[in-house]
Design a protein that fits this description.
By secondary structure, this protein is mostly helical. It is 58% helix and 0% strand.
Amino acid sequence: MVDRAVGCLLGAALGDSLGVPVEFADHGEIRTRYGPDGVVEPPPQALLGDATQMLLFTGEGYLHAWATGNNGGKWRPVEATAAAYRRWLITQQESKPHYGATGLMAEHELYANRSPGLTSLRALQEEILGTPDQPANTSKGCGAVDRAAAAGFAPTVEMSYTLGCQFGALTHGAPGGWASAGAMAALIHLLAVQGRRLPQAVDQAAGRVLREDGETATALADAATLARIDVRTSYIQRLGQGWVGPEALAIGVYCALALPKRDQFRDALRLSVNHSGHSDTTAAITGAILGARHGTAALPRDWLNRLELADVIERIGHDLGASCVGEKFNDRRYLSLG
């Protein structure tokens, strides 16, 4: 299970890095630039997008809460993750770590602006962040769902879903913004922690999110239906472009369901980026899903060798997995962050 947690975060990062160069390009532009097959592999320097940056800070925030609770303090995962997102915001405003920085704040490579979502930037500058019951705005953008995988390593699927929703609502106020994040977290838990098969996990996540957001539940059902028919880029367009949470989740799920085998990881990620939409987010979702399903054995080694901060991503993934199954890890490094 720890290996699946590592695979989940590294898979998300590989998808993100594959899609970053074409994030704002339509399919015609992608084919003009890269040829008839579109993007087929990450660039020689596979840089992380904002999706992976915020996924890492989500993981660090959750682990801070876990370590605090494990060492006699109070368990406050939402507050801890909100503080982590504030730290991420600093990396978007400053050029390098300050003296004595710890945790992710000490990583120079994270002080890079990779086209972060305006909704998250604006929300995190406000004094009070949102909740599902008291939303901060009316956004259902995809910026919450693409960072939600880390919440999948909570002890139960219901807790994963709830935390995914709460983490999402910190910045995205519409149900489509935060409930899609909850569905993503639940899906990752079902795959990585419970070892469910992908079609059954998608059905269960869709059934759970239906209580809060019918749009996300319908989008997941549509993705499952299309995946049973065929593998076509045109089917992605029927699901949307991925700029909002339900569409991004549906596209990522469709690509994973259409090409679900361990040896199809490359092709699934290629399918998830070569369309007219939010390519880095949809590919990050596909990569996280297949990494959670198959573990690190599915990940292309030649792609991993190009990946920025691969060692940091692996460490956060390992510690999330270890926290979930009760394996020992250096939890004290998460107690003092900043």
